[in-house]
Specification:
Number of helices of chain A: 13
Strand order of the largest sheet of chain A: 2-3-7-6
Largest interface: A-D, 57 and 57 residues
Number of strands of chain A: 9
Structural class of chain A: alpha+beta
CATH architecture of the largest domain in chain A: Up-down Bundle
CATH topology of the largest domain in chain A: Butyryl-CoA Dehydrogenase, subunit A, domain 3
Order of helices and strands of chain A: HHHHHHEEEEEEEHEEHHHHHH
Largest sheet of chain A: 4 strands, antiparallel
Number of domains of chain A: 3
Helix content of chain A: 40-55%
Oligomer: homotetramer
Strand content of chain A: 5-15%
CATH class of the largest domain in chain A: Mainly Alpha
Distance between the termini of chain A: 35 Å
Shape of chain A: globular
CATH superfamily of the largest domain in chain A: Butyryl-CoA Dehydrogenase, subunit A, domain 3
């Protein structure tokens, strides 16, 4: 048992921390100032500073760190990448800097694993280069997406074409001016086995019939220039080879992308919680009330201690889940993946909320990053499966494990 | 002991509920569409529908219900007005409709109680008529406002003038195009007794030296067209009779306005929680997952039950605090006022958060009112004294009470 | 709306408080010393001091206060009796002093409402006089009693006899040397309508076939000399007129007794929480660590404030439930009765646990009353329906209420 | 980073689990039946089955596993011993079976590290052999022991004697018929540096002046035959070489023993939580209500999932603390040691309480082990430093760490 990061991870941690301090954190206010368009997503731009940061990150060898496949990326294990994801979680603009932002990372992984050579050429290459962005269209407004079998959008096979119809929302990143492609999930064969009914289809964003209806705000913020789109698909016709891995493999592919994606999200949100705690402590030690720094008043030390304990525990659990992914695979890590998905965002929500409270009114404004971090954490309690669905799965696996142990009747 | 609302309150409740259902709730989307200016507060407007609603409310006799003084308002006791405040809390646009929104209500009460005839003529009359709006400038960016003795802004007496200097923020309502006046609190005599040092001063918004520096967002929303302003005061000179009640009475007046204000806020936020629970139940009973309405799945009934119990308890406590205000006065209700200020917003935050979770992604967007209600509840855990300060006061009073009871040494 | 206790209630409150301070609290250690038998229930005795206290209470007119029927008791409404129940909850020996302890109170109410003249003569009279004690045999070890339809014990009608068979447990009070009678609930007609299947039967404790198998400890304590018995019934034959109200009315009678019983329990447990908070504050203000009384250290004031807010809210909710019972009857108070049953014991458990923590090791010992109070609160989260069942019912009623309001489809 | 137990640890885990299943768990009811004396500690005995189990454990090489010193014990690192401590925590009788129960383990470690050859001969040898038991007398009834500088008992040096005076309580294990020795901590030099004032003294239990005044119950249970004693020391005279390590080293020795001791306690209480979860799941899957196993009803799966997540996190944090102790020493693990001391017992209390609730009335009785496990967890929130003191220390270290990071002013 060894709780130390590997030599390789430690090297990256050091370099990444230095890069964050030198380049990314100082760029945050510049990035915000360069953003254009406000609530009107059609006028969104890519802030120039982001392209500068990307060039620097690439030059520094801090690029595509998330990709475990050594042919395309850094070739890091999940447990080695995890602390790097955490560091990038400290700043909401950081993941893109290192080409490690969702949903591009998941889309790239899907293409690495399931993409045809032609698909890789067309989409994987520019994504790896950070030249284009992409979206993932799965969730639907009309049905409870916590139950994936509810999905209504269709990807029908008609001759040598696949035809997409339906309505998706929370398609994150689809508002980005660089977004050129989306991956669509739809029902292909309602009579097939439950997990063989759906397909994943690659669609250029400008395919006729694809229409971005609007962008959805999260706590009033549009996450420009990425955005979360509501998108309609009307008789969208694509050649059959746009289907990733062939028809009926949608669920299989979705499962494969969710494991690492959840670890990335959880580590990033732990980074967000660390930043919140840092801000909280800075405020607590610098602000005076009733003749003392807030840090020493009443229950404030308890708040700090509780935050520290919660972060440590969530991090260890997430690292263990990553290690299980590396050592026994996604199936053996099923319960742990669901556990971190419940634990980390909920923990981060509480820690960030406490940091807001310590800041008083300033914490609610844009003067500190806290409300943006809170929105990220809050979204994660719903995205990629709400807490409720994960808890249900954890309990089911626990009952099974206990039955196996005690050998008794159900 | 009688838990029934009075006949008079029940009559108002019925009429107010009918008015809300017929006029206010249907106007919510119209109001939002009519809002102009987005993040640019200098372009904010008063949506025409609001003036129509105000006219209707006035005609229906549902106007200035909050004012206990029968000469100026409805003459309702706190406990009779409380359920009406709750009803208006169900919609964020409702309070203004009935001329019952903060901080105008508090400002009007101050003028009723402490205003000179001239001040009443100039400001109380148009405020009562809903022709103008006002702001209240107390909190400061540079110091922890949880400790009011920290206040740095000054209201110096120079000859027959009072001179205001300093910087205030979270001056709510100051962005409203109808806002014409503000009440400023500042240090007048640093050598006086601790609670006799400050003064409250009435200032026309267009007085030279008063400058709105910017509007502060709350969770990314500017609460247009009211806004929360950061305001600088530079050598703002006013005649001495702009000082309300005379110099040195700032704290006394502040205390007097806070009691009823906190009850209003708490009842409104309870109304917000009720609306959230209503939305939660509607979603739970209409949305299907895993073959059943969400209402029946897993721990969802527990969430509903916990919300119901929390709301009931917070309401009863707030009503009791109102009743104490009516029967033994603000001093005898000190602990209870602080108790509701901790209990009600925290309860509402949890209930609204649960409603968001039940809605999935929709809950985070603007498609339902939930994030706006959440922002209201969250702000209240800080505004008018943060939870921490109220808990400290409650404990202090409890220790005193217990000492008195047991007669033992401290 | 009036939060003041009635004149009559206030008079009783004053007298009861005086009696508690003068007679009951000082008698607690005497009572404990006079207890005999330890874990061997067959050697339990009635401590002589209890009979003295009962005589004094009777003489002071503080007797059978719980009985709303003026012919037999004080004739107080639920809302008038509630604060008296709270006062007696401060001491675990107090309820018996005033002849207001469970399950005798419930049994007496059943006899008043459903008993035949002969039953009243035989059992109600000596119970009202405090000459005998009684038990209530409902819960069974073999089945989940949270679902009352699970009940397996039988009360078959054979000719002019009723025959009891089965096994009951948690029959509280059955170990008391004065216990002479029990009320047994069993299945009479499995083919009848679901709520007409069971009967309640009066059985002298010495009826052949009734056997106390053992006493059950609660957190290691046997609650001597009352005890919680496991009792077997083997071919227990009684004349048909032992059936209360006639066969098939078991559920109806059980429902009737549960409403007031739950209010009594909840008010008593609120009294227990008040005593715990009193002890907590005494310890906090008298114990020094790190140079200060515990009362001022760290988060301790928050603990006190949270306890005070929780107690106030639980009390108001319970009083409202009592008032609803008085004004609209048990059916109209269904949700509220379930709400208090969840809220009050859970609140008390938390407050008492906090008081234990403030006492350090002493809190865990018998040197203060806290572990005994905790056991009482903890038991109540299970007895008379576990939290889970009450939450389920509250949610069901809430869904119904919301459906009715919105008029929408289920 | 490696989350797998070492080969050596896995070997012990396997053997220990087998031994527990084959020998210890089946012996639990036998042990209880063989216990004598009830509440009268002077009649307590060592149940014969315990000596049989100890002999078997010794023969199986499962003896003194806790001792990191290879000369005297198994020579396991903290992180290797931790899972073994967890396993023994599943049964309250297990630690003694393997000679790994508190406070003997701590006392043995003290003797190994600080004992003179003569002290080792006299006391370490028989303790290692499991022939005698010992106690540790530190906590005092008159002062808040959370602040160790409060300590009033004295260990004065008079010539060639050390003289003990004072009153101690919560001296665990002192009631055991095999207990022959105690370690006493007292004030030697009030004028010395704050952490050089106290001494630890070895005293045979039968030294004149040592008097066990009584045994303290925990939630009504005396933990026979170990017990928690209140002990008076009156002019207890011992030769100077009874002082461990020489006068003035009490705090130094106490600190050294607390680190490993806290890890042992935390891992054992995690084992207790695991057992509670196992019992909870067995009950949930075997008990039927409303036509379904409890396992599927309402929020019960959430309870199971929450328990599983909490246990996993507490275990990982504790293992990391153990690993830090092994790699950077107790000083580098200060915050983590305090963190686990807050996290693990609190977690266990909640999990065990949930298991009690799932069992209904049975959970409160002695029919399942749950109340005994709960008492163990509850005690730990106070013993070895209450939660409050640990949270304070965690916060202090966090503020320091954050200051160091940001380089800003305090």
């Amino acid at each position: 048992m060894d709780f130390a990061y590997s030599t390789r991870a430690r090297d990256y941690i050091e370099r990444l921390n230095a890069f964050m301090a030198e380049h990314v954190l100082p760029a945050e206010p510049i990035y915000r100032r360069q953003l254009a368009g406000g609530a009107d997503w059609t006028r969104w731009n890519q802030p120039p500073v982001m392209e500068e940061l990307k060039a620097k990150a690439k030059a520094a060898g801090l690029w595509n760190l998330f990709l475990p496949d050594v042919e395309y990326g850094a070739g890091l294990s999940n447990v080695d990448y995890a602390p790097l994801a955490e560091i990038t979680g400290c700043s909401l603009i950081a993941p893109e800097v290192f080409n490690g932002n969702a949903p591009d990372t998941g889309n790239m992984e899907v293409l690495v694993k399931y993409g045809s050579p032609a698909q890789k050429d067309a989409w994987l290459k520019p994504l790896l280069a950070g030249e284009i962005r992409s979206a993932f269209c799965m969730t639907e407004p009309e049905v409870a997406s916590s139950d994936a079998t509810n999905m209504r959008a269709t990807a029908r096979i008609e001759g040598d074409e696949v035809v997409l119809d339906g309505r998706k929302w929370w398609s994150s990143g689809i508002g980005h001016p660089h977004c050129k492609m989306l991956i669509f999930m739809g029902l292909t064969d309602p009579d097939a086995d439950q997990h063989r009914r759906h397909s994943m289809v690659l669609a250029p964003l400008d395919t006729p019939g694809v229409k971005i209806e609007r962008m959805l705000p999260v706590f009033g913020s549009y996450d420009a220039p990425f955005g979360h789109g509501e998108v309609s698909f009307t008789d969208v016709r694509l050649p059959l080879d746009a289907v990733i891995g062939g028809p009926g493999r949608g669920f299989e592919i979705a499962q494969g992308r969710l494991g690492p994606g959840r670890i990335h999200h959880c580590m990033r949100v732990i980074g967000a919680a660390e930043r919140a705690l840092e801000l909280l402590c800075q405020r607590a030690t610098s602000r005076i009330a009733f003749g003392q720094p807030l840090a020493r008043l009443g229950g404030n030390p308890d708040i700090v201690a509780n935050a520290r304990m919660a972060i440590e525990q969530a991090r260890l659990l997430t690292l263990k889940a990553a290690w299980l992914m590396d050592t026994v695979g996604i199936k053996g890590a099923t319960s742990e993946i669901s556990q971190i998905k419940v634990v980390a965002p909920g923990m981060a929500q509480r820690v960030i909320d406490a940091a807001i409270q310590m800041h008083g009114g300033a914490g609610l404004s844009d003067d500190v990053e806290l409300t943006a971090l809170l929105a990220y954490a809050r979204v994660l309690r719903i995205a990629d499966g709400p807490d409720e669905v994960h808890r249900k799965l954890i309990a089911k696996l626990e009952y099974q494990r206990q039955q196996a142990r005690s050998g008794g009747p159900t």
